[in-house]
Design brief:
homotrimer; 350 residues; alpha/beta; twelve-stranded mixed beta sheet; ten-stranded parallel beta sheet; 4 helices; 16% helix
Chain lengths: 350, 350, 350
Amino acid sequence: MTRTATLAELATLVGGELHGDGTRTLSGVAPLDVAQEGEISWLSDLRFAPKLKKTQASALIVPPEITDPPRDAIICKKVDHALAQVMTHFAPPVVHPPQGIDETARIAPGAKIGDNVAIGPYVVIEQGAVVGDGTILHTGVYIGAEAHVGANCTLWPHVVVRERCTLGDRVIIHAQSVIGADGFGYYLHEGRHTRVPHIGGVIIEDDVEIGACSCVDRSKTGNTVIKQGAKIDNLVQVAHNVVVGANAVLCAQVGVAGSARLGSYVLLGGHVGIRDNIELGDGVQVAACSCVPQDVAAGAKVAGLPAIEFRQYLRESASLRKLPEVIAHLRELTKRVEQLESPTDHSPRR
Amino acid sequence: MTRTATLAELATLVGGELHGDGTRTLSGVAPLDVAQEGEISWLSDLRFAPKLKKTQASALIVPPEITDPPRDAIICKKVDHALAQVMTHFAPPVVHPPQGIDETARIAPGAKIGDNVAIGPYVVIEQGAVVGDGTILHTGVYIGAEAHVGANCTLWPHVVVRERCTLGDRVIIHAQSVIGADGFGYYLHEGRHTRVPHIGGVIIEDDVEIGACSCVDRSKTGNTVIKQGAKIDNLVQVAHNVVVGANAVLCAQVGVAGSARLGSYVLLGGHVGIRDNIELGDGVQVAACSCVPQDVAAGAKVAGLPAIEFRQYLRESASLRKLPEVIAHLRELTKRVEQLESPTDHSPRR
Amino acid sequence: MTRTATLAELATLVGGELHGDGTRTLSGVAPLDVAQEGEISWLSDLRFAPKLKKTQASALIVPPEITDPPRDAIICKKVDHALAQVMTHFAPPVVHPPQGIDETARIAPGAKIGDNVAIGPYVVIEQGAVVGDGTILHTGVYIGAEAHVGANCTLWPHVVVRERCTLGDRVIIHAQSVIGADGFGYYLHEGRHTRVPHIGGVIIEDDVEIGACSCVDRSKTGNTVIKQGAKIDNLVQVAHNVVVGANAVLCAQVGVAGSARLGSYVLLGGHVGIRDNIELGDGVQVAACSCVPQDVAAGAKVAGLPAIEFRQYLRESASLRKLPEVIAHLRELTKRVEQLESPTDHSPRR
């Protein structure tokens, strides 16, 4: 990282209040524990305030609660937001294919390619497909027939977008993900699993980001839909006809079965499984490794296998920890009751 | 979708009984809730019969139980099968590479390529490999040395079939899946994990379908085998030396550990884990998100972590819901017994 | 398999003691159950000793406990190690791209390519990247700008190594895996999930092996680290800023959330989930399908959802099996106590 900035420049960049020497030159950003002289660090959680005194960082981004920071600092209300801007400033440039269309890219006649695109080597774009202005397609990306990719999207190497799927603007899809593979649906006919045609597609709305090696299957009819601003991590499965709500967050290895509907701002922890055909209301949160077998009302927080209301889950987990001794206790109590029931002697303790 | 058909034509196509106006022209197929005028819909589950009256569909596919359908209709015993045929009729064409071998495909001398193949750009086929008649290889597919791909297979973009693996006829493999990567086996030698050579292969029999981003590892010796007609979803792991039975169904994100053996028609729900070296008999069903640690007899249905017999699982789940109050109750009962045991006073209720 | 060897040659190869006819020619290796005449088999677990008499194998590799093997044999202390050497001997050659750089490989000016590399078709290597001596890059591999790949690595088809990531020597990465995709981190800004820049990288040390379709995300700052000799299976997620200890083993479909730290020789069974920011000490073992929500001390063995100490997990599982009857028993006992409490009659059994 060779980009530098003065503290005053960074304060202006993030709209924060400068505290101390604005002429100090900074050359990088790092966490409190590992920052070196010449770097700026940050405090986003007040619990870690004691670390401020020990850090080697030359400058700090701190919230207003830190009234007297022990280093030159930028004081601002939204440290996370300021930090993202500072990190973006110091970020080394990311190399994309150069603007234009690589000579090895295979673009079918009739495909419509926007302005200022960057289409890398060995990309294949089938007939009738559309690629919007400013979109970046890395090496080996495949855009199927009549698929639409919006403007200013970034598709990393080998991403596959199958025929008739639609991506909005500013969509990011990481390497190897597959959009629009056939949904997994069969019916049994004369003893054989026979494919249900999946003639629908996938709609991915604006500002969605999808991780690496994830799959969003095409629908039977209509569309599988990932709504505006949803964020999906790596190795996630979104089955046919699912609707993922706006700004939902699906962590790595989540699986959402066919026709499930997730509301806005739903948050699914890693490894969560969602049953087919159920509905999770807006803002539902599911703890990692849970399996949700039925509808969950908006705003609820659930956990477990099967997933239940979160506090009940905690109570049951705590109770389960005691179960072996509960059983021993019950056995002992039973003996005491037997003794009480004995006609000759009701009182065991003499 | 611009293909059309009259209702009479569709009735003939599916071998159903025409009810009403056979000359009606239809232009698409959609579920009852969303079908529009000019489209045909269907009823595959009698529970949804009330929807028949509200649908905007112009025609219906219904089972014989619906003796007086409220729209022009095709009456047939197997609605699922009829629907698949109708959907296939209305399905827009899927674009594959054109017949022939793309000029950028890299085919090693000595590889044998059948007739009427469609081999897309940037495909690599290594020495001694065989590709059967009518098979479609999309862009970037890799066929390793001496691998055999049968007739009329479809391999979607970037599928990797490693050396000496064998695919039967009509096998479909979706984008990014990997057949024949080295099995995950090591032994500890002088403190280091040392690879066990996996010199076997993979055999995938006829009519198997494998989803996107799935992995079937090669065996140590002999072969990992996916038997005839098995269907495997996305992001599934099938480890070295596993046998997946004929017509088995493995939903998304299932993991089957080394040398496990699954019988015919085994059904594994999403996210299921199967321990290494165990056997699941024919027709075993495992509920989603379960983890199976031991053999399961043919026909059994299991669930849970660890998986147990399904009704027992339901009983335990219901019991667990009560556990916190059970513990409270036991505590209270213990007090009552203590009171009964007290020599001075046996009766708590006065 | 057409390579052959005499038993004496194999005994020399593995440093074992020859027992019987050293001139016998062998042409392959297979397990006791399936080995045919002319093949050598092995016994690595004394429990299977009874199989020795029934095998069709012509020769055996056995441990010293088998003092009088029923076939010509090699006796050696470390059967696993000997077996690996014998299997390597009989292994058919694996076809890699030929030495040199394929004419279709796209290597940016300024990338440094070592000696004796084998770079296959359609590989893309960006500016400033380094590829070490003897490294093999299969078709479609992508090496991002300023990434470093060490010597004698093997990257299978379509592996993606993003910008500024570093691989040590002898690293193996199977097909479709993605190293250095952006970490999954957002903060909520004006109702939208806003990306946290991930300006760090990934360091993969010497002798690491990573399976197919696995993901190791780049860090926010600093590096995600996979230490020397760790082995990672297929479809595994390693999130941003994670540290995987030396010689750790992560089975298929494991997910490790952001900033978790795994010690040396940690062993994670299939489908395990590890929470973000926790630490697992050296040698921790986690049973398959478990979810670990908190730190685990070195050497501990845990299981369950949430994961707890292994023996406690077994006790609880056994107790849970009894829970329905425990509840019935408690109900019955309560009635007996009520009867005892009844002022008119303390004794239920007459």
